[in-house]
Amino acid sequence: MARPRRGCLAEPKVPRRMPDPAAPRAPSLSSPVSNPGLLHVVLLVAVLYFGRELFIPLVLAVLLGFVLAPLVRGLRGLHVPRPPAVLLAVGLAFALILGLGGVLGRQVSLLAENLPSYQTTVQAKLAGLRAAGGWVDRISGALAEMRHSAAPTAPPAETASRAEGPRPLPVELHSPEPNALQTLQALLAPLLGPLATLAMVLILVVFILLYREDLRDRLLRLAGARDLHRTMAAMDDAAYRLSRYFLAQTGLNAGFGAFIAVCLWFIGVPNPLLWGVVAGASRFIPFIGSVMAGAFPALLAVAVDPGWSMLLEVLVLFAVAELLMGQVLEPWIFGHSTGLSPIAIVAAATFWTWLWGPVGLLLSVPLTVCLVVLGRHVERLEFLEVALGDQPALEPEEQFYQRALAGDTDALIEQADKCLRERPLAAYLDAVAMPALRLAQQDMARGSLEEDRLARFRGSLGELVEDLEESREPAKAAPPPGWQAPGAVLCLGGRGPLDNVAAALMAQVLAAQGFGVQQGGLIGSAAGTGPSAPPRLVCFCFIEGGSSAATARTLLRRQRRRLPGVPALALAWQAAPEGGLVQALRAEDALVAASLPEAVVAATSLAGEALPVVPRPAPEPPAAELVPAPA
């Protein structure tokens, strides 16, 4: 589906109907009743919030199904029947999860047993900090003084009465010792919720993998059987992105945890296996996962090492490992697989954490990926892709036009440098700058472009032309010497409001090819300086909708009278081949090009023919008079 272009066409004006005084007044736009979309969003958020006990296991099961689907397909490829393949894949996954849970429990119990032995080291470090300048004592004293001054003081009479009265007797309440059933209940009560969620996820994953095709057919029926191709494309896109994301993320995080565990073992931090598992699992949480994973080993290093070297080694380890993962491995492996912008990831993490707590933080990225996929394939939800996706919200020509209107020349030059690394100058100007000129001309035709913005637009393009001229490199294949003389090619604009700007861009393209160019227009300096030689070629530049066919015909006839025998090349940018402008240009024997690269090819072919120089007659006015007056 082609993405609709934004900001090019004006919306038609609809005549407004006068309200009937006798009719009941409709609710205002600001009223929630008149905005059903807002009501739907609020209702959906409320359903997700109050039904989180049901939706969290369902979402976990669906995402785990995406991860296990490739394993099931692999087992099916080995001629294993579907039920045993599903049970084997689910059993392996949950055995791995339970094994990691058992390892974590064992490591936590060992850490709890060794914590009292670290108390002496911590007290010795605190005593050393107090002896080194006493700044810890000063901070503690200042805090105690502030707390004492902020505490309310009782009146003197009340204080005296309290001092004279009898002291209250202390009362202690003792609850009876719990029996075996109460002790068992106290131990199992915190585990009932997670165990119930785990059992529900297990059952849902099994049924999702068993009836995967049937569920997909039902979703296709609900989404609309008339457009199976688009629905299948959306589902395949979501499945591919989520499967690739989870598998790659799981592999990277497992390697990250193993690397951390080995390094912590070499450093000497206790329970390195525990911290390796925690580090690998914490990286599923965006942004704060690595900080959380490194905080615990850092605190333990403070309690274990009498000095500070272990703490520094742990901090350096996590900083280097996170830098390597975030800046090298993940961009190299993931690329743009998730399709989310950094701002969208932050916003999604905040929203889903508020909605579903820590589980929402863990699921924020995959859930937002699903929303972006919906926005890419459903027209009414396109705003989701624009708001959350990593693709630019504006097309390159729209970005060029917006930055030129704002006078942001630095952004224009930065965009030009980036594009020129991938394509030549003619292709960049033809694909980005010339469409921006058409957008500006359309706004001028509608009367929506003010004079100050138009002046800013021209000034920005003038500075861009000067920057392109200064950074121009010598041409690899220069034309014959006669075509390199200043003024060998004369670039002129039509009578349109921005035709002279197009002529300036055309002059830059030809100068980059080694031609000696002289340009008459409103912006930019001449691409070639010095005394002008008799032109060997005259290039006219027209943007369709700016100059009429009659005007183009008049300019070409005047050129033949002033410069007889000099060929004319007309750039009618993106004009219809059967349109009036192109037909008028061809009727006057002009060589017509529809794009800047075509114009460069035409000028190069003319230069290769080594046309003779035709001297200008003495009584005729100079070629500068050919420059049309600005509209």
Explain this structure to me?
The protein has a 5-stranded parallel β-sheet with strand order 2-1-3-4-5, sandwiched between helices. Helices cover 65% and strands 4% of the residues. It has 24 helices and 5 strands. Helix 14 packs across helix 15, helix 18 packs antiparallel against helix 21 (499-512) and helix 22 (549-562) packs parallel to helix 23. Residues 1-34, 521-531 and 610-631 have low confidence and may be disordered. Helix 21 links the parallel strand 1 and strand 2 (517-520). Among the domains are: 34-131 and 196-210, no CATH class; 398-626, Cobalamin-binding domain (Rossmann fold, 3-Layer(aba) Sandwich). The protein is mostly helical and 631 residues long.
How far apart lie the N and C ends? 40 Å
Estimate the strand proportion.
under 5%
Mind telling me the CATH superfamily name of the domain at 398-626?
A: Cobalamin-binding domain
Give me the strand/helix succession. Answer: HHHHHHHHHHHHHHHHHHHHEHEEHEHEH
Largest sheet: 5 strands, parallel
Q: Which regions have little confidence, pLDDT < 50, spanning 5+ residues?
A: 1-34, 521-531, 610-631
Q: How many helices does DSSP assign?
A: 24
Question: The CATH topology of the domain at 398-626 is what?
Answer: Rossmann fold
How large, in whole angstroms, is the Cα Rg? 37 Å
**What's the overall average pLDDT, rounded?**
74
The top-level CATH class of the domain at 398-626 is: Alpha Beta
Number of strands: 5
What is the strand arrangement across the widest sheet?
Answer: 2-1-3-4-5
> What level of helicity do the residues show?
55-70%
Structural class, by secondary structure, is mainly alpha
CATH-level-2 architecture of the domain at 398-626: 3-Layer(aba) Sandwich
In one word, what is the shape? elongated
